[in-house]
Specification:
Oligomer: single chain
Strand content: under 5%
Distance between the termini: 51 Å
Radius of gyration: 19 Å
Helix content: 55-70%
Number of domains: 2
Length: 143
Amino acid sequence: MANHDLSKQEALDKAEAYCARAEHCAADVQRKLYEWDVSSAWFNEIESHLYDADFLNDTRFCHAYVHDKVAYQSWGRLKIQAGLQTLHLPSSAIREALDAIDEETYLSNLRSLIAQRHNDPEEKRLRFLLQRGFTYEEIQKCK
């Protein structure tokens, strides 16, 4: 849907509403601004305002992303880290969020995945778990 006549204030209001509904990162907002056909000259100004008003917060976003990927998709640290890096988030925010993972829940997820795949050949199960972002050492620890 093209919004060629969207003013800067309207784009800013729309971006604020978008960020107020759920945690988003700057890349998500830029994608939305592009979809809304907002002038690219306003992108940096809108993004800066969203950071200043705390609608965007890299650390908060990383924590929410990590929580959701561990709790709902049972991803391993490596896959989560790769997902966050593709969003060009600060390494310090990524590391802090990864360090906050509840180890008991994390290993419980891994054990559950291993149990779900108990009928698979060892090589196939290992490949599946590695693709989910778990390290070989973590997998061996939970066997």
